[in-house]
Structures are given as structure tokens and as C-alpha cells.
Amino acid sequence: MSWSDLWGYEFMRYALLSALILGPTCALLGVFVTLRGMAFFSDALAHSAITGVALGLLLQERTGLDLDPMWFVFIFSVALALIMAWMNRHSSLAPDTVISFSFTGSVALGVVIISWLGKYRLLDSILFGSIYANDLNDVIRQAILSLIVIGFLVSQMRGFALSTLSPELAHVQQLPSRLLHYLFAVLVAATVALSLKMLGALLLSALIVIPAATAKLVGGSFRSLLLIAVSIGLLVPPSGVWASAQLNLPTGPAIVLGNVLLLFTCYVGKSLHRISMNNSGKRSELKHGLRSGR
Domains along the chain? Predict the structure, then answer.
């Protein structure tokens, strides 16, 4: 099945558009997430989506209103991100401890509400996602989010880069590091909420973390790190959608495995290159020693 064949199906068009929009957006955001050591933070927010969906369904059932649960995912994720960001700065607890109890507590609350409502079947779609469930409204929301995230990160690139790579220098230059810290947490939460349909709560953080980790293996500078991560985010998710259609595989796991395969390939390639360079250096030293001995 060719790309043109896939494009002929409406649900596939929306899936490919979502992959093309969210892939590079999550990858760009992931560069700062990984450099700041916030990979577990994004994972916790992804899992907290269970509670957001559960609260939306609960309110929908109690009021009888036709409400989109994704708005509650967005609101709950942003609120939890701000709470964790505040506690990381003002609590005596270690950041990973704050994230851990927020993560497990929000998941437990969500599962309790869903079990109370008797909607266990929803857990599959929340945990693993369904990119083919995207419609035009989802794609529009994702496009708006992408413009906001990319626009904000590009416009505040200097402040984010300094506060991430050299907090002391950022403080000396009186950059609003605290404000950037909270705004960044909100950006991560918003991205997680609107990307949930793509990979689900269990796999979503891979879309944020793995492209940045791969770029870090091969990138030699901060600029190359950004460019490589965005390129991976632009190429791998649509390729995962295509591969899943060709091989009849679940789409989310296909995208994640594509990212993992690329990461592993880059790691092996870099390791072999390092070994080759070391061997070349040893041979050069041996030749030099032999010549000196003569």
C-alpha cells in the first residue's frame, strides 16, 4: 500500500497529519525535557490523563452534558504540572519523590473513578491510544498547540537554553527562570493532553524522550541536537503509521519501536565508530613507537 493509497482514507489522513504535527513538536519539547532531567515528569503527566478522562466522564454522567473528556485531561494535566513544579521548588522532598507520588496517586484516583462508573473498557484506549480516532477538530487543536509550543520555545530559546544549560549564568543575567520553569511545565502538560490519542498514557512519553535521546547520541552541538531531534520527530511517526498499515500492527507501538530501533542503531554506530577510532589511535601510537625505536 503506497502513501497515496493511505491518503485516500479519511481516518488515515488524520492519523498521518497528527503524526506530522505532533512528532516534531514533541521531539523539540523533548530536547529541553531530557536536558532538564524531566523525562519522568512527562511520563507522570501522561499517566495522569487517566484521572482527567475519568473526571470528565464523571461530570458528563452527573450533569448529562455532552462534554469532551479531553478538555478535562488538559485542565487536570496543567493543574498537576503546576503543583509538581511548585513542590519541586518549595518542598523539601526530592523531585523524583514528588513526581512518584503524584504519578501513582493520580493513576489510582483515575482507576477508582472509572471502576466506580463501570467503564473498564475505556482503560485500553486511554493507556494505548488510538491515533485513528482523531478527527478534524483534534488535528486543528494539535496544529494550534504545535504553533504555540514551537513559537514559544523559539522566541524564548535563549532563556530556556541558559536556564537549562547554565542556571547560574541565567540568574546573573536576571532571566525570569522561575516563570520559564512554570511555563515550561504547562507546555509539557498541554502537549501530553493533546497527544494522548496518538500513543496513549503508557507510550506517550516515548514520543517526547526518545527522539531527543537519539539526537544527543549523534549531535555535536545544541543547535544540531535541536535539528536532529525535530527531523526524527518529523520522519519516524509517519513511518510508524505507514508500517502499521502495511504489516497490520498496532500504530502506537509501531511508532515507539521505530524510535527505539533508530536509537539502538545510532548507539551501535557510535560505539563502533569509537572503537574504530581507538584502534586507529593505538595503531598510530604503535607505528610511532616502532619508528622511534629505530
Answer: 3-206 (1.10.3470.10)
Q: Please report which confidence band the pLDDT of residue 51 belongs to, taking 50, 70 and 90 as the band edges.
A: confident
Cell of 174: 536576571
Give SS3 for 244.
helix
Q: Which amino acid is at 267?
A: Y
Counting Cβ atoms within 10 Å, is residue 267 exposed (0-12), middle (13-18) or buried (19+)? Answer: middle
Neighbours of 223 (CB within 10 A): 11
User: Which of 126, 128, 125, 136 is closest to 14 using CA atoms?
Assistant: 136
Q: How confident is the model at residue 122 (pLDDT cuts 50, 70, 90)?
A: low
Q: Does residue 212 contact residue 34 with C-beta atoms inside 8 Å? A: yes
User: Please, what is the end-to-end C-alpha distance for the chain in angstroms?
Assistant: 66
Residue 254 · residue 243 · CB < 8 Å: yes
Q: 201 versus 292: which is more confidently predicted? A: 201
Q: What span, in angstroms and rounded, lies between the C-alpha atoms of 223 and 244?
A: 32
What stretches of the chain show up as alpha helix (H) in DSSP?
3-7, 10-35, 39-63, 69-90, 95-117, 122-128, 136-155, 157-165, 167-172, 177-218, 222-247, 251-293
User: What are the C-alpha distances in Å from 147 to residues 25, 27, 230?
Assistant: 9, 14, 14
Phi then psi for 249, rounded to 5 degrees? -110, 155
For residues 36 and 109, the answer to whether their CB atoms sit within 8 Å is: no
Distance in angstroms (rounded) separating the CA atoms of residues 140 and 249: 26
Per-residue pLDDT, averaged over 249-263, amounts to 88
Torsion 223-265-39-234 (CA) sign: positive
